[in-house]
Design goal:
The protein is mainly alpha-helical and 229 residues long. It contains 10 helices and no strands. The protein has a single domain, classed as Up-down Bundle (Growth Hormone, Chain: A), CATH 1.20.1250. It is 82% helix and 0% strand. α4 runs antiparallel to α8 and α4 runs antiparallel to α10.
């Protein structure tokens, strides 16, 4: 009861805060105060007028939509029988493989087509989702977690590099901010979908849906590559 009360209380505080923020004043009054646009909004609009930058930001959202929160790795570990004392090992394994893959992937990005690396990252994510979907023991679950970490290592730094290479120097910070905004929104949406699937259909359906989203992202990436050719 206490845990439920704490969760409900936090949700109530969140919505109360959101409501206060949303009523601070008309948005147009802020944007058009004294007939001028504040510098921050001008930079945001300038980034929006950079098609190349937006093309690099959009895949970040698509990748995150295919990869929901790592909290589901812990839930999966518990569902296959991993003892509670060993649950932190799940995140340790993921981050070890994440860190181990980050430098080689970054170095490879200087010599190999970046879309090829993104496709490899998606393939690793799909492999992770399939392993986790059909895992029947903690060992198989840890294999899937390792693939998940490899996916992170091959994609996260590369996506940031794509934004850095295309955003104008004076808008670099704004470009990263928009990238993180889009990725964060996609992560929230993906996690809500995953949570709903977990509660209604179970862990296997959740990770199979993740594999499906990853496959769709790969198809879109391949299609855009052919169009550019």
């Amino acid at each position: 009861m206490l845990r439920r009360f704490q969760i409900d209380d936090q949700l109530e505080l969140f919505w109360l805060f959101y409501g206060k923020i949303s009523r601070l004043g008309p948005f147009q009054d802020l944007v058009h105060q004294n007939g001028s646009t504040p510098e921050g909004f001008g930079l945001l609009r300038s980034v929006g007028q950079q098609p190349a930058t937006l093309r690099k930001i959009a895949p970040g959202g698509g990748f995150t939509l295919a990869r929901f929160s790592e909290a589901f790795l812990i839930l999966r570990a518990r569902s296959v029988g991993l003892q509670l004392d060993y649950v932190p090992v799940v995140l340790i394994v993921m981050n070890v493989f994440y860190a181990g893959a980050a430098y080689p992937a970054g170095a490879a990005a200087d010599h190999i087509n970046r879309r090829t690396l993104l496709l490899l990252g998606l393939a690793l994510l799909i492999a992770a989702d399939l392993e986790l979907a059909f895992a029947a023991s903690p060992l198989i679950m840890f294999v899937g977690t390792a693939f998940w970490g490899l996916h992170m290592g091959f994609t996260q730094g590369l996506l940031l590099k794509l934004v850095a290479d295309t955003a104008p120097a004076e808008l670099l910070g704004t470009g990263f901010g928009i990238f993180n905004l889009v990725s964060g929104g996609a992560l929230l949406l993906a996690s809500v979908i995953a949570g709903s699937l977990w509660n209604s259909l179970g862990p296997r359906a959740t990770f199979l849906a993740g594999a499906l989203f990853g496959a769709i992202a790969a198809i879109v990436l391949l299609a855009s590559r052919r169009q550019r050719k």
